[in-house]
Amino acid sequence: MSSVPPQAETGVFSVSSSILIDAPPEKVWSIILDFPSYEEWNPFVRGQTITDKSGNPLPDQTPAEGKYLLIAPVHLPPTMGEPGWFQKQSAWEIITTVDHENHRVAWRNIALPTYLLWAERWQAVTVVDGKTKYESTEVFGGIVAYLVKFFMREKLVLGFNAQAEGLKKQAEKP
Question: For all residues of the chain together, what is the average pLDDT?
Answer without folding.
Answer: 93
